[in-house]
Structure formats: C-alpha cells, structure tokens
Design brief:
The chain has one domain: NAD(P)-binding Rossmann-like Domain (Rossmann fold, 3-Layer(aba) Sandwich), CATH 3.40.50.720. The protein is of the alpha/beta class and about 400 residues long. Helices cover about 35% and strands about 20% of the residues. The strands form four sheets. The chain has a seven-stranded parallel β-sheet, sandwiched between helices. Strands 9-11-13 form a three-stranded mixed β-sheet. The chain starts with a strand and ends in a 29-residue tail after the last helix. The structure holds nicotinamide-adenine-dinucleotide and sulfoquinovose-uridine-C1,5'-diphosphate (USQ). The site of sulfoquinovose-uridine-C1,5'-diphosphate has 23 residues, from helix 8, strand 10 and strand 11.
Length: about 400
C-alpha cells in the first residue's frame, strides 16, 4: 500500500512510519518540522538525541533496504503543493498525525491559541479538500484524542466509540437518533480536535470520503522494535512542562531523582496506550477502512485507564523517589472516574501491551541513559489555563 504519513517526523509519526515501512508499505513522510522549531522556541530538546529527518531516513535504508520519501510541506499553508503531491504519489491511504498536539502549549498565549486552531483546523480541512479535488479514493486515518469527550460528562457509563444513541421526545412520540458524543474539550488543543470531528462528519456525508478517527489516549513509552534498531533511529522523548505527557514525565523524573510532579490531588483519571500499540492500531485501521458512504469510523485507541496519583505512587514505590502535590496549572476536574469502551481494536486483533514493571524499567533506562541532556528548569509545568493561577517553583537545583 502507498501511504502518506503526515507528521511522520513526530513522536507517534516516526515509529509508525518505520512500522509501516517494515511491513513493506511504500511510505512517504510529509512534515513541516514545526515540532523541531517549537523546541527552539521553548529552549528545550527531546531527552533522546533525535537525528535530522534526512539522516533518520538514510539510516533506515542502510539497515533494512526500505526506502521512505520525505516532503517538507506545511499542511495548513500549502494546499496547492499538497494537492499536487496527492496527484503525483497517488496514495492508497493517508495517516494524519500532523497537528500541534500539546494542551499546555495551546494555552500559553493568544498567539499559541490562534496558532493551534489555525494549524490544526486548516491543516485537516486542507487534507480533506485536497483528497476531494484530487478525485482519488484515498482512505484517511486521523489521530484524534480521548479528550474530545472530556471527563465525567456521561457519569460512570462507558464512553462509547464516537457515537451516542439518544432519545428525542416529539409530539408524535420518541425518536431515536445516533449523534456524535457531545464534545467537552479541556484545552484549545482538545477544542481543535473536536472541530476536526465535524469536518470529518461533513466530508463523509457530502463527498463519501473514507475516514477513520482514532481517539487516542495518552501515549507512553518511547521505543518500538524499529526505533530501537540503531541509536540514530531513536524516537523523541518529551519531558518538559508543555510537551511531556504525564507517565513519561514521571518516568524521567524518577530516573533523575526529581520529585514526581502530581498536579493537585492527582485524582485525574486518564486513558493510556503504549507507543508499540499506537503503531499497531494505525496498521489495523489502515487494513480495515470504512466503505464509501459510511460515517467516520471512530475507535477509542486506549488500552488502560489510570489515576495520576496511582501512577505516581507506583513509581515512588519502585524507585524511592518522592511525590510532590503541586498547584494544578490547568482548569480540570480534580477527581474523575473514567470508563472507556475499547472493543473496536480488540475485535480486530489488537493484543494490548499493558503497563508492567519491565516496560516501566525500559523507559526509565532510556531516561537514565540520556539524563545529562535534561534541563531540570524545564520540568515544572508553567503554562496556566487562566491568568493568575499559581504554579510551583523549581523543585531541584539544575
Ligand atoms: P508531535 O508533535 O511529536 O508530532 C506531530 C508532527 O506533525 C510533528 O513532526 C510536526 O512537525 C508535524 N506538523 C504539525 N503541524 C504540521 C503542519 N501544519 N504541516 C506539516 N506537519 C505538521 O505529536 P505526536 O505526539 O506524535 O502526536 C501525533 C498526533 O497524535 C497528534 O495529532 C496528536 O493530537 C495525536 N495524539 C498524541 C498523543 C500523545 O500522547 N502523544 C495522544 C493522543 C493523540
Ligand atoms: N499531569 C500531572 N503532572 C504532570 C503532567 C500532567 O499531574 O507532570 C496531569 C494533568 O494535569 C492531566 C493529566 O496528567 O490531568 C494528563 O496530562 P498529559 O499532559 O499527560 O496529557 P494531555 O494534556 O491530556 O495531552 C496528551 C497529549 C495529547 C493527547 C492527550 C490524550 O499531549 O496530544 O491528545 O494526551 S487525552 O488525555 O486522552 O486527551
């Protein structure tokens, strides 16, 4: 299969590109390298030393013989070039990872809020409009987020995979309707993903595009069998207050002896998935596309659910590092339960990777190997959801 991987230089996109290439698919990465530029803006780097994209692709070919293409292109700004690329490559499928994906970054300033909406919504819309105008039948797999549902909206009932059946009372009796699960985003980033959902519903209904939207939980881990082949293929590892996600941050903090940065009581319950399962889920979605005329096919791309404080306590017990309860810089429920339906991928053969001591150790080993690259002044999350909210001072001398 010919596959374009949009955002294929990123944390999820790079290992997915290698996984698909390893399976024999003809992969072309499309990326504007904006994530690397944001590192420069934030004055922080991936904990792991990621190589330039050209070197990554060259090394992959040297080691495996598999060729991958790379096109430096901005999805939000370069519609004509993207449409021309579709006509030239004629892909069977597109995997769309190419968005600004950090909730804290999206709340930094009005500039970052506008950038996140402009980049994500325009980029996604350009992809859809270009597929239509190319006249090609290209299946689209998009990486969405569990955060579109929000936390606590449907009480303890399991969050369904995308759609909810509701009863509407009318003078002629009750009508049953299937609707998109109400959106309840917790940040401008999550808001951009809820807008993406509406674009997908429209383009499926109007143009019969074939779209799968993967509502992914928080990804943890860093290496896949392919990225672990050679240090020059290593995946990125974000640990800073804006881009680092909670479990990887805790693993990095435990590795360097930094107190674990629990926001508030740590009563937030979230959905998780290991990066190895991310790449398999994308493969499964590519192999099982919806038919023309179907509504967007939604999968909850989640394998486990954990409360933040339970993760912190587990790591504290394993490593002896202290837990710090910090003022929460976000506006979010202090405590929530989470029950998520995740039957779709299981029915299609996903064998979940569960959090185990072995895997936690593997990530901690990666963090330990590169701990001298860490800038400890970047660990505390300083972006606040509303002006005046409190954050913590640094907890460790650099
Ligand atoms: P990332 O920032 O590491 O990668 C995104 C890539 O997209 C980067 O390489 C960036 O340069 C590129 N990009 C961004 N805007 C672009 C544009 N306009 N044109 C071309 N390229 C562009 O993020 P990630 O962690 O790999 O996440 C990938 C996708 O998965 C995102 O859409 C994100 O919302 C989703 N997701 C991620 C997680 C997670 O925990 N990392 C969880 C759930 C969903
Ligand atoms: N948290 C802490 N301490 C930290 C970091 C985070 O307690 O040091 C808490 C946060 O306050 C939040 C929870 O952990 O309650 C999750 O935060 P996160 O940064 O790990 O995840 P989030 O901001 O939701 O975003 C990440 C990815 C995003 C993806 C989302 C999936 O960056 O791209 O869409 O996970 S989900 O959470 O399911 O919406």
């Amino acid at each position: 299969m010919k596959v374009l991987v949009l955002g294929g230089d990123g944390f999820c996109g790079w290992p997915t590109s290698l996984h698909l290439s390893d399976l024999g698919h003809d992969v072309t990465i499309v990326d504007n390298l904006s994530r690397r530029e944001i590192d420069l803006e934030l004055e922080v780097e991936s904990l792991t030393p990621i190589r330039p994209i050209g070197e990554r692709i060259r090394v992959w070919k040297e080691l495996t013989g598999h060729e991958m293409g790379f096109v430096h292109l901005d999805l939000a700004e370069e519609f004509d070039r993207f449409e021309a690329l579709l006509r030239e490559v004629r892909p069977d499928a597109i995997v769309h990872f190419g968005e600004q994906r950090a909730a804290p970054y999206s709340m930094r300033s009005s500039i970052a809020k506008r950038y996140t909406i402009d980049n994500n919504v325009r980029g996604t819309h350009n992809v859809l409009a270009a597929v239509v105008s190319s006249g090609l039948d290209i299946a689209i797999v998009h990486l969405g987020t569990m955060g579109v549902y929000g936390y606590g909206w449907s009480g303890t009932a399991p969050i369904p995979e995308g759609y909810l059946t509701v009863k509407v009372s009318t003078p002629d009796g009750d009508l049953e309707r299937e609707i998109l699960h109400p959106a309840n985003p917790g940040s401008v980033y999550h808001l951009s993903k809820t807008l993406d959902q509406l674009l997908f519903a429209f383009y499926c209904a109007n143009d019969q595009l074939r779209i799968s939207d993967l509502h992914q939980g928080i990804v943890w881990g860093t290496q896949t069998p392919q990225t672990a082949l050679d240090e020059r293929l290593i995946n990125r590892f974000d640990y800073d207050g804006d881009y680092g996600t909670v479990l990887n941050r805790f693993l990095m903090q435990a590795a360097i002896g930094h107190p674990l940065t629990v926001h508030g009581t740590g009563g937030q319950t979230r959905a998780f998935i290991h990066i190895r399962d991310t790449v398999r889920c994308v493969q499964i979605a590519l192999e099982n596309p919806p038919a023309r005329g179907d509504k967007p096919m939604v999968f909850n791309q989640v394998t486990e659910v954990y409360r933040v404080r339970d993760l912190a306590e587990l790591l504290a017990k394993l490593t002896g590092v202290k837990v710090a309860n910090l003022p929460n810089p976000r506006r979010e429920a202090a405590e929530n339960d989470l029950n998520v339906s995740r039957d779709g991928f299981l029915a299609l053969g996903l064998e979940p990777t569960y959090l185990s001591e072995g895997l936690l150790e593997e990530v901690r080993d990666v963090a330990l190997r590169y701990k001298d690259r860490a800038d400890t002044t970047k660990i505390i999350a300083r972006t606040v959801w509303r002006e005046g909210m409190e954050t913590s001072p640094d907890l460790m001398e650099s």
